[in-house]
Amino acid sequence: MDFLIINEGFPILSTLVFLPLIGAFVLMFLPGENLQRIWAMLITVATALFSIPLYTRFDMTTAKYQFGEHVSWIPSLNINYTLGIDGISLLLVLLTAFIMPLCVLGSWTYIEKRVKEFMICLLIMETAMLGVFMALDFALFYILWEAMLIPMYLLIAIWGGARKIYASIKFFLYTLAGSVMMLVAIIALYLTNDGSFSIPMMMGQDYPLTFQIWVFLAFFLAFAIKVPMFPFHTWLPAAHVEAPTAGSVVLASILLKMGTYGFLRFCLPITPLATLTLAPIVLWMSIAAIIYGGFTALAQSDMKKLIAYSSVGHMGFVTLGIFFLNQQGLEGAILQMINHGITTGALFLCVGMMYERTHSREIADHSGIAQNVPIFVTFLTIFSLSSLAFPATNSFVGEFLVLAGAFSENKIIAGAAIPGAILAAAYMFRLLQYVLFKGPGRPGLKDLNVREIVTLAPLVFFVFWIGLAPEPFLEVMHTSVDYLLGQVDMAKAGAHIAMAP
C-alpha cells in the first residue's frame, strides 16, 4: 500500500461520499416541498464545505494518493473499500461538490412535481459521482459507475421534455453498452493480477502489447461513449435537450468528465504501450469531434442543442490534450475539463432560467431580449465568451495549453484543430447576435431574480479567477501529471529495450 497515504484522522473522503446518501435517506421522510428543497440545499452546501480541506491540506509534492481509506470489504474476492485522491482527481471532486448546490438552487422553481424524488435522485447521483473520482478498487469503481445510471435515467425519464422516454432509454443503452466492455477489461486485469482489484497495483505492470491493446479498446469504448467522442456522441444532444436544467448541468459539468478521467486513470498508466500505439487514431478522432461539433452547433436553432453539440467540440480538445502525452497537453486537458464544467454548466443554467419565462429554447424566440433582461444578457455574454476561449476567461488558459502541447508534438494535427476554435466563436457570436441585436425584444419579460443571480455569480467568479490567475489550479496537478507521464515513458523505454538486437 505504498501508493496510498492513509488518513489516520477524520474520514473526510467517506464523509463526502456518504453525506449526500444519508441526506437522501432523511429526505424520504420530510414533508413539504419547500422543506425538501431546503434540506437538499443544506446537504449539498455541507458537502461542498467539507471538500475545501481536500485542497487546503493537499500535499503538492507527492504523487501518492492522499486522504486514503482502506477497509477489507469482501475478502473472499479480494474486494476492498479503498479511497484516495491525487492531483488528477482533486479538482474533479471539488467541481462535483461545488456544482451540486447550484443544481439544487437552479431547480428551485423549475421542478414543481415530485420535488422529493427529484432531490433524492440528485443526492444519490452526487454520492456515486464523488465515489467514482475517489475509488481505488475496480469493483468499488464499477459499482459506483453503474450506480450513476439509474438516477440520471430517472431525471430524464420523469422530469424531461416531450421525448424524454426516447432520450432516457438511448442514454441508458449507450452507457450500459460501454459499461459491459469496461467490465470485460476489469475481469481480464483481475485474472492477470492474481485476483486483485487494486487500481494502483495494476499500473506499471509489464503486460504484453496484444493484451494491452484489447484492454485499451474495451476501456476506450466505455470512456469514448461517456465523453462522448465522435462518432459515439449521438445520445448526448437528445439527453441534453430533454433533461431538466439540473440534469443537463450534471451531464455537462460532471458525467462527461468521467470519460476523460477514465482515459487518465486507466488507459494511460495501465495500458501505456497500447496508448502509444493507438494515440494517433484517437488524436484524429478528437479532431473530427472538434470540427463536427463546431459545424453542427453552428446549424442549431435550439439553444440547448447548440450547447450540447458545442460540448462535443470542447471535449474533443480535452482528448486531444490527453493523447499528445506531454506536460502542457495533459495539464491543459485537466484544466479544460474543469473549465468546461463551469462554463457549459452555466450556459445550461442560463437557458433553463429563460425557458422558465418564455417556455421556448428557440434562438429566434429570444431575439433582442437584451433590452428587457440586461442582467441575464450580461451573464450569458460572459459565459459565451468563456465558451469560445476569449482571453482572460478560464477556457482560454486550458485551450492555450492544449494547443501549445499539440504544436510541440505534431503541427499538422494541431493545425487541424484551429478551425474548431474559429467555429466556436462563430456559433457563440451567432447566439449573442440574436439575443443582443436582432428583433424587437419581449416587453414584460422579467430579468433574473436574486436567487438566479446567486446561482450564476460563483461561476462568473471562477471564469475570471482561472482566466486571470490559473496557477492555484495548475500547481496541484504538476506532480501527479509528471508521475503519469513517467509511467508512459518507462513503458516506451522498456519497449525500445525489448526490440533492441
Automatic annotation (TrEMBL):
Enzyme class: oxidoreductase
PANTHER family: NADH-UBIQUINONE OXIDOREDUCTASE CHAIN 4
An MF annotation (GO) of this entry: NADH dehydrogenase (ubiquinone) activity
Domain NADH:ubiquinone oxidoreductase chain 4 N-terminal: 65-129
Pfam families, per the entry: Oxidored_q5_N, Proton_antipo_M
Protein name: NADH-quinone oxidoreductase subunit M
Keyword vocabulary terms for this entry: Membrane, NAD, Oxidoreductase, Translocase, Transmembrane, Transmembrane helix
UniProt source species: Candidatus Desulfobia pelagia
Domain NADH:quinone oxidoreductase/Mrp antiporter transmembrane residues, every copy: 135-414
Subcellular location as annotated: Endomembrane system; Membrane
GO cellular component: endomembrane system; membrane
Transmembrane segments: 12-31, 38-56, 88-111, 118-136, 142-159, 171-191, 211-232, 244-264, 270-294, 306-325, 337-355, 375-392, 412-432, 453-470
